[in-house]
Specification:
Blueprint (H helix, E strand, L loop, with lengths): L4 E4 L9 H10 L4 E7 L11 H10 L3 E7 L7 H6 L4 E5 L6 H10 L3 E6 L17 E5 L14 H12 L5 E5 L7 H7 L3 E4 L1 H4 L8 H9 L1
Parallel strand pairs: 1-8, 2-3, 3-4, 4-5, 5-6, 6-7, 7-8
The structure holds D-xylitol-5-phosphate and zinc ion (ZN).
Pathway: Carbohydrate degradation
Family: Belongs to the ribulose-phosphate 3-epimerase family.
Enzyme class: isomerase
């Protein structure tokens, strides 16, 4: 299914009202929920782990898309699978054995995602394509929400779309996606758009319709 899906990053949610925040974005029509897991080692920031994913799972029916910015990744895959992740995405740059890690996600019967930092050529994914259900092109350097979109990644999305051919692989774009950059990535071939600040800005659990309008704008 190549229709455009909007995946709000809960990194930009109000953590003090977490349950209500994720219920609000689901009610306002998001397609997936994107969970950014950071370890203070692979990326210079810390966020959350499997217990939070498990708590989210109880609140929503939507696809839970877990983006692991952690190294090593292998020791944690089972815990994220058990916590109810539907898609588990790991970084090509996070270890020497990405092929093994993607296979491990498949063995856990989850959708396997491969994320590529802006400095990694998409051609590096070629030997791994048959193990991928999704490839995430980072359009910022991972670690923080609210960063500026890296325009040179548009050409990489286009090249990846050509490499993928007719394989059933989603192209996800993560970082700086807003109403001005969304059409560019969609036109280049992306079909899953992650957005943190562009979904949560100006809204709140008391004003959830703002989230709906932000999702519609994307
Ligand atoms: C960055 C994360 C993103 C980020 C997106 O490391 O992977 O998911 O939260 O945030 P925005 O949409 O604000 O750039
Ligand atoms: Zn992310």
């Amino acid at each position: 299914d190549r229709s455009i899906k909007i995946a709000p990053s809960i990194l930009s949610a109000d953590f003090a009202n977490f349950g209500q925040e994720i219920e609000a974005i689901e009610a306002q029509g998001c397609d997936w929920v994107h969970v950014d897991v950071m370890d203070g080692h692979f990326v210079p920031n810390l966020t959350f782990g499997p217990p939070l994913c498990k708590a989210i799972r109880k609140h929503i029916k939507t696809v839970m898309d877990v983006h692991l910015m952690i190294a090593p990744v292998d020791p944690y895959l089972e815990a994220f699978a058990e916590a109810g992740a539907d898609v588990i995405t790991l970084h090509l740059e996070a270890g020497a054995h990405t092929h093994r890690s993607l296979q491990a996600v498949r063995d856990l019967e989850k959708k396997a995602g491969l994320a590529l930092n802006p400095g990694t050529p998409v051609e590096a994914a070629l030997p791994l394509l048959d193990l991928c259900d999704l490839i995430c092109i980072m359009t910022v350097n991972p670690g923080f929400g609210g960063q500026k979109f890296i325009h040179s990644q548009i050409d990489q999305i286009r090249r990846l779309r050509a490499l993928i051919g007719d394989r059933p692989i989603h192209i996800e774009v993560d970082g700086g996606v807003d109403p001005s950059t969304a059409p560019l990535v969609a036109e280049a071939g992306a079909d899953v758009l992650v957005a943190g600040s562009a979904v949560f800005r100006n809204g709140s659990v008391d004003q959830p319709s703002v989230y709906g309008a932000n999702i519609q704008a994307l």
